[in-house]
Automatic annotation (TrEMBL), chain B:
Membrane topology type: Multi-pass membrane protein
Location(s), subcellular: Membrane
Gene Ontology cellular-component annotations: membrane
Signal peptide positions (record): none
Name of the protein: Murein hydrolase (TIGR00659 family)
Gene Ontology MF terms: hydrolase activity
Cross-referenced PANTHER family: PLASTIDAL GLYCOLATE_GLYCERATE TRANSLOCATOR 1, CHLOROPLASTIC, PUTATIVE SEROTONIN TRANSPORTER
The UniProt record lists the keyword Metal-binding: no
UniProt KW keywords: Hydrolase, Membrane, Transmembrane, Transmembrane helix
A UniProt-annotated Pfam family: LrgB
Organism lineage string: Archaea, Methanobacteriati, Methanobacteriota, Stenosarchaea group, Methanomicrobia
Transmembrane segments: 6-25, 37-59, 65-85, 97-121, 153-173, 213-233
Record has Transmembrane as a keyword: yes
């Protein structure tokens, strides 16, 4: 038997999703509804309107098994094989090199700024 | 038995069932070996694609069940606020370096992706699908949809990226003398999301926590940067 508390938590999370969608559609924002929902949840948590305990069990469950929910999207690759023909090497190369660039640029920027601030103090 | 097969394939139970079974098997294999190459999502995807191709089952048949799993992408994106909320106090000490680093790094990533896509002569559809490939999967899928890319290609590139991050990032940090723990963590979380973060956690507590926090922030930053940079550069 699933405790009623889990169902309430899921309803709260789904309501926030729904509010994100409404915001997206009504305000015509170029930001996806789910992302607006995420920002909304962050604001609700930071301001204390929503307590973490009100959603924590279901959140932990979803986060723990997060990659399970990407399976259908990943399997959808099967419908893209013709578009991707002969382009796998390029995509692999771009993925690896851009990861390298982001690591170096992000790491260097953070490190330089932290060191500069420490030397000012 | 064989008369039952069409009923099974025609039912949502099929898509949901093979997703659960293959993901469970993928997790077992990953836990046994601990190799980042045996990522449970990749294993599950390969097993399902293999099964569909060999039994001539269409993606639409699979997705009759799969769509119910995809439905949870919405809640899965929204609850990314929870780990960010838990770690947001870590921002206090270094707000500006961290936010500046993530923004500059993500922008450099997007620009490099667009430039390389052009170098390889990839069409617009593929380039748009590649732009959000460094962020966490649920946000990447959203951005890909928003830009008009193909989310499935984005997911594949995101997983490639994560594996590359696990294998390369400690080496890259050492090579470029990035040794500040905060800088290392933020760099890994920004470049290779949750998969890279598993490596950052191994490197140390600060690295792991910073990397975990960077995942959601990099995702949010990319939501704003991607459409702007795509418009200017494409």
């Amino acid at each position: 038997m699933i405790p009623i508390r889990y169902i309430i938590q899921l309803v709260i999370i789904l309501s926030i999703c729904f509010m994100g969608d409404i915001l997206h559609n009504y305000l015509n924002l170029p930001i996806p509804g789910n992302i607006l929902g995420m920002m909304l949840l962050l604001v609700l948590l930071v301001t204390g309107i929503l307590k973490l305990s009100m959603i924590e069990d279901v959140s932990n469950f979803l986060l723990k098994h997060l990659s399970f929910f990407f399976i259908p999207a990943a399997v959808g690759l099967i419908t893209c094989f013709s578009i991707l023909e002969g382009k796998w090497t390029a995509l692999l190369f771009i993925s690896v090199i851009s990861t390298f660039i982001i690591t170096v640029v992000t790491g260097m920027t953070v490190q330089i700024l932290i060191k500069r601030r420490r030397s000012v103090e | 038995m064989s008369e039952l097969a069409p009923y099974l394939v025609g039912s949502p139970v099929f898509g949901i069932g093979i997703s659960i079974i293959t993901f469970y098997a993928g997790n077992l294999l990953y836990k046994k070996t601990g190799s980042p190459l045996l990522n449970p999502l990749v294993l599950s995807m390969l097993m399902i694609i293999g099964l569909l191709l060999s039994l001539h089952i269409t993606f639409d048949d699979y997705n009759r069940g799969g769509q119910y799993i995809s439905f949870f992408l919405g809640p899965a994106t929204v609850i990314l606020a929870v780990p960010l909320y838990k770690k947001i106090s870590l921002l206090k000490e270094n707000v500006i370096p961290i936010l500046a680093g993530i923004s500059v790094g993500s922008a450099a990533g997007i620009v490099s992706i667009i430039v390389m896509c052009r170098m390889f002569g990839l069409d617009e559809l593929l380039s748009l699908s590649m732009i959000p490939k460094s962020v966490t999967t649920p946000i990447g899928i959203e951005i890909s949809n928003q830009l008009g890319g193909i989310p499935s290609i984005t997911v594949a590139a995101i997983v490639f990226t994560g594996i590359a991050g696990v294998l390369l990032s400690p080496l890259v940090c050492k090579l470029f003398r990035i040794n500040d723990k905060v800088a290392v963590g933020i760099a890994i979380g920004t470049s290779s999301h949750a998969l890279g973060t598993t490596k950052a956690v191994e490197m140390g507590e600060t690295e792991g926590a910073m990397s975990g926090m960077a995942i959601s922030i990099a995702g949010l930053v990319t939501v704003f940067l991607a459409p702007i940079l795509a418009k200017i550069l494409m």
